[in-house]
Amino acid sequence: MSEERFDRLEKRFDLQDQKFDQMGKRFDLQDEKLDRMENMVTQLITTVAKVVEEQNAQGKEQNAMKEEQASIREELTTVKLEQRSMREESKSRHHVVMGKLQSIESDQDHIWEKAVRNEREFARFKNQFNF
């Protein structure tokens, strides 16, 4: 009986060994899956870090662009003010020039009237004195 018992125990041990081998294989598969998942998580973390870094760089670029736009707006406002000032100065000068031209025109009309009068008087003197 002891030999039969020994055989049964041996079979049990063999079955237990097979179960342990199967469990070991399962653990190995689980370890491989975990390793793959760890690699994937590492890749995700790296990718996210790169994306965050790129976003930070883009944010800095956007801030620089906003500052540049503000500077351009200030320059544009300055240019508009200068342009308005130049227009007002131009209008003022135009009025001055137009006033002078009207004065010159009046003087020219007066000179022509005098010249015509003088020519008439000269013609009368010529006729009176027969020149």
Terminal CA distance reads 181 Å
Mean pLDDT equals 93
Q: Low-confidence stretches at least 5 residues in length (pLDDT < 50)?
A: none
Order of helices and strands: H
Estimate the strand proportion: under 5%
Helix content: over 70%
The outline comes out as rod-shaped
Sheet with most strands: none
User: Taking Cα atoms only, what radius of gyration do you get, to the nearest Å?
Assistant: 55 Å
Total helices: the number is 1
Q: Count every beta strand, where a strand is a DSSP E run of 2 or more residues.
A: 0
Structural class: mainly alpha
How would you summarize what this structure contains?
It is built from one helix and no strands. With 131 residues, it is an all-alpha fold. It is rod-shaped, with a radius of gyration of 55 Å.
Structure description:
- Residues 63-91 have a biased composition (Basic and acidic residues).
- Residues 58-100 are annotated as: Disordered.
- The protein is mainly alpha-helical.
- 98% of the residues lie in helices and 0% in strands.
- It is built from one helix and no strands.
- The protein has one helix spanning 2-129.
- The N and C termini lie far apart (181 Å).
- The model has no long low-confidence stretch (mean pLDDT 93).
Question: Any descriptors?
Answer:
131 residues; mainly alpha; 1 helix; 98% helix; 0% strand
